[in-house]
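Complex record, three chains
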Amino acid sequence: MALDTTLERLTSPWDHLAQENTFVGFLDTLLRGCGQVMFQNNPLTGLLFLVGIFINSALLGGAGLIGLLVSTLTARLLRADRSLIRAGLFGFNGILTGIALAFFLRWNPYLIVYIVIAAILSAVVMMALLHFMGNWDVPALTAPFVLTAWLFLFGIYLFSNLRPSEFILPVSLNPGAVVQTDLRPLPAGLIGAGVTPLNLVEAFFRGIGEVFFQDNLVTGIIFLVAILINSRISALFAALGSLVGMLTALFLFGGNGFWVFHGLYGFNAVLTGIAIGGLFYVLTWESALYAVIGTLVSTIVMASISVFLSPLGMPALTAPFVLTAWLFILPKAGFHVLHPVALTDVTSAEHIRHDFLEREHEAGVGRTVQPAP
Amino acid sequence: MALDTTLERLTSPWDHLAQENTFVGFLDTLLRGCGQVMFQNNPLTGLLFLVGIFINSALLGGAGLIGLLVSTLTARLLRADRSLIRAGLFGFNGILTGIALAFFLRWNPYLIVYIVIAAILSAVVMMALLHFMGNWDVPALTAPFVLTAWLFLFGIYLFSNLRPSEFILPVSLNPGAVVQTDLRPLPAGLIGAGVTPLNLVEAFFRGIGEVFFQDNLVTGIIFLVAILINSRISALFAALGSLVGMLTALFLFGGNGFWVFHGLYGFNAVLTGIAIGGLFYVLTWESALYAVIGTLVSTIVMASISVFLSPLGMPALTAPFVLTAWLFILPKAGFHVLHPVALTDVTSAEHIRHDFLEREHEAGVGRTVQPAP
Amino acid sequence: MALDTTLERLTSPWDHLAQENTFVGFLDTLLRGCGQVMFQNNPLTGLLFLVGIFINSALLGGAGLIGLLVSTLTARLLRADRSLIRAGLFGFNGILTGIALAFFLRWNPYLIVYIVIAAILSAVVMMALLHFMGNWDVPALTAPFVLTAWLFLFGIYLFSNLRPSEFILPVSLNPGAVVQTDLRPLPAGLIGAGVTPLNLVEAFFRGIGEVFFQDNLVTGIIFLVAILINSRISALFAALGSLVGMLTALFLFGGNGFWVFHGLYGFNAVLTGIAIGGLFYVLTWESALYAVIGTLVSTIVMASISVFLSPLGMPALTAPFVLTAWLFILPKAGFHVLHPVALTDVTSAEHIRHDFLEREHEAGVGRTVQPAP
């Protein structure tokens, strides 16, 4: 509570400035776009996300900024609804697209052009999916990013000016092959292998960092703090997601140990946890359990989509999160034990729960009063 | 008619008991869930399906029961509409998921956990698709099973605790390769090769058995009898489907002879035949022909989806049926020669046709009367 | 204008005859079906398309005619809305399906049966997608053709009676492989390599011809004239599409030189240009730019879908156009700088723009008048 009040005092003058000054307003839009990657409509959270990215890699940060800027400007030039733009809804797919293309492709002048075109497309796809999914009042999530980045990554086998980084590596599938399950980093030797506290901490925070393709312990820590600033519930479910992804991969399914260390089973679970845990359903004990099952499922889906794309050597990106969250959000009012949140009412997990409890209270009072007359 | 009356006398006390007693009611729900795999909302049909499965394999039967139980309980715990649960709509994807995972993966303790999680997901996906497809009043069919089972099967390449059975076998595609077209069983020697009456009978009934992944002559016979108990029209179209799948693969397209023998071109045609032949369109001569074309198309789609997944070594499951039936059901009222049935009116093919003829008759009487005044 | 009037004088008696005489009416339906492949609801355009195809290959022309005839008859027998049939909406997927199957499969008697079944399915899928996409007032485009042709092409690996032509060639993906970027035809020696005026002209017109899988300079010229007869705007955007596809592949992305020469980066851009440039959005400077970006994106999508299917050796067909155009049309009214056209109002680009300007004018007059009283 005390933390909330202090932060409000800090952000209030900024909000004021953002409304008055066009340039500050645009900066605010960009930062919110960055924060929306993890559903945090908060410029300070967005700023910390950027800090976390730049600490790990200035190159990826720069590519992300190009994507963020271009996708947001595209939405403005095409005159999308101002409220959508201001909430950062066109920026978050742009920044992810920029980072992903710079991560999976080698740096050269053509790559910048490629990122610019991709960021434009990500804004168009966002509007397309807003319209398409709006039919069921289900969010587009990071689907515009996933679709755009896949289309631009797959194509490179036919484009000599765009060359893959070492992370694009097609493999033939062999059902008899042994999965290496030792928990350890990929360039071996840096840290000892095995289920050690250090390795578990690394895996936990890298799982959060990998949401932005940042394979870095410190970045993961900064990201978790950035979420915590805006929502304790979201931070809790981000942490739960990374934990579930990492622990089930390690101890239940026998997942690839490199993958666990680098957070690759975890980052889709992080996003799934945040989305279902308090945002698209009101946080209750039932929805919390539903969210945990969602994180568990997203871990399996991460493996399956990765396998599906392995003959192409292409990454699953955040598709496991998108698919899992869609499947868990689409039932909506169909499961009466859960309380779905209308898209227009999705703010922060705390506000959503507060409003719900207030309505419940009023309804309860109403119910008690009603018999009277 | 006489058979119908006898059966009604037999099932009526059971229905009475199922309404009074919670435990019998739940048992009834489970059996209907089993029957719904072939659209038969009848506990006796479901019981015979189970008998057919256990005759072939107690292991697959056990895995199926776990799936059936867990998916039905999940829907109850999440408080889905009682009428949907009671009709077995959450059970049929669960039982198929359980059987498929036990068929394509090796037995070990982790597999049970895997089946439980998958069955939970199948109930969530069912509700998601009910909401999604409900938009067009089109049924989810076995899509929740297909999607869930694919997600859980693909992942095993990255999970050392889940190992594939011998049916997971990736192949590289070679357009010049010769397709072996001799009609015969896979472990050769048991039965002579060639288009013999015995081999055709085997292929015909195995095509029906394979709907539940039961590659067994006797099981196929029991399944057909089980359908016949509830609906002669559905049994007719199940038989037509298996025939069309087998005969066109053999004599028109030159399909793989092993596949024909084991009913693999047939089982999707069985389901497509039942669905279009009298359930989602009123049975008329025109819709019967439409259904036969559907079974023919589903045979081709079985080949194409299998080819698509062959680099992964993964099975098509009942996806060919789902895709074909969706394509043939979506046109609905667009083809005026057909009479689509609203989802809430889908009972048995006989009832649907009876109600339709009654309405036609009334409309006819109305039309004759109208000119009078 | 003068050209328009002359053409109207030419086509008017035909239109009269088509309404009076059943046979001429059916012929008119078939020709419009042919024209609708490029959105030109004009029998003369359709006739010229046919001429262009037959000049290149009588075999492909014949296969196309079977597909055109069967799909149109299927829609009539199933009693689809007469107005849809008369506009050629069931024919265009049929003719494309016939040509594509004859292009990618070897000629034999079974192929004719295969084409007939596929053409029947294309009409069913068209109605299914009309119903499905109608939800968002978004056109089915050539999706029924793409889906049908894929299903029938993939299956051939399991059907010995249907054999692939030399254009079905699976390749393993290798990120290190060098893309050959020299602009030249595939059977080398005919024409010198390099960015010569002749090679650019070849690439430009073949890009238009490839919409119907016609890899031929003269056919491409006839196609462009055929479009021009019905709509100068559509012809302009067809040309722009081919140009953008060819030039960006050559100079921006470093595409495969064989592909550029044979128009393979261009034909999806041609269709995307026509669709977005004046048909599903009113032609304005803003929508023209939006259309050009669409053609650019479709070029990249062509590469990516081709790569995705390369382990199967299967072609992308016009899927890149369908996906790109859907993404660019779905935003509709969401981008206020664009003026979307309702599906029922899609006629020719010229009529659409004329009606829009008239409405704008009236609104302008209204606005000026309003303050008066």
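Note: Chain C has a mean pLDDT of 93.
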